[in-house]
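CATEGORY: protein folding

GOAL: derive structure tokens
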Amino acid sequence: MSLRITETCVNCDVCEPVCPNKAITQGESIYVIDPMRCTECVGHYDEPQCVVVCPVECIDPDPSHPESNEQLLSKLLRLQQEDAR
């Protein structure tokens, strides 16, 4: 399942640099996570790094993008192939 950043985000800038898939960007008012790039750090770390560093705990699973660990790993492999081009 992709993650999402809730409205309680304080724009502290700590989540964006730790995302190995470059899925986090600054939105209009808060940071946002691109569900097409978010793999919950599967294939990189044991837990999502954005969740680990977030001081206000505003990053939750996104129920509109359910994915299994296998699907997240497959997405990571696709992203790695695309980024290699």
Observations:
- DSSP finds two helices and four strands in the chain.
- The longest strand covers residues 3-5.
- Residues 2 and 35 are 5 Å apart (CA to CA).
- The chain has one domain: 3-84.
